[in-house]
Amino acid sequence: MTTKLFTTPKPNPQATIRLFCFPYAGGAPSIFIPWLDKLPAHIEIVLVQLPGRGARLMEPPHDKMHLIIEELMQHSDFITQKPCVFFGHSLGSRVAYELAYTLQKANKTLPVKMIASASRAPHLASQKQPLYHLPKQEFIKKLRELNGTPQEILANAELMDLFLPLLRADFEIADCYRAEPCPLPLPIDVFFGHDDVDISQAQRDAWQSLSSFPVQQHAFNGDHFFINTLSDQVIAKVSDILASL
């Protein structure tokens, strides 16, 4: 399936499970392209492409979580058409949880598993200074410190002017969104980086409050963006989890 919102770069009609991938704040679905040929054969990857990035670059980005969920829920029949797994990194994890929570409220089928990567539990408030409303140069300085925005974008004034609305919108959601602390009948695995100074153990452990199943945690020897620096290890762990379903 290829729509504005969902892209399936490698269709697999025989797949028994769909893996929906939600990128981090400011991230494009292209970060998951290296996964396409490395997951079990029964998996079909669906990339979630929100406005303001990728092929939707010129669309105004959503700056509230409920706007993202409203757009996703317009396609709830597709999301629940086959057994599926949600994978989200950082803000993407919280989008994935809120979507699962909304599916539950709508009496829709839940994913068979969710993988929350590099994220505090979404019912907890951020402990960091809000970034989205900082003056332009201070905001860019913070982005550089976070080390998740490509240097070629940070160093290019024209590209930064193009991407700033998306980055501010994503960080507004990251800074302000709080989930309802509702345990779902949904197994959750948590990925984290040993050197991730943004997420504490207590913030990771709090995911247990959101699942009626025991939450499994998996460590990687990286910082907040280990999904990029240790992609092969992340893919291998995701493959192991999916193979067991």
Automatic annotation (TrEMBL):
Lineage of the organism: Bacteria, Pseudomonadati, Pseudomonadota, Gammaproteobacteria, Alteromonadales
Protein name per its UniProtKB record: Thioesterase domain-containing protein
Ranges of residues in domain Thioesterase: 18-241
Family: Belongs to the thioesterase family.
Pfam families: Thioesterase
Domain of life: Bacteria
Gene3D superfamilies in UniProt: alpha/beta hydrolase
Organism encoding this protein: Pseudoalteromonas obscura
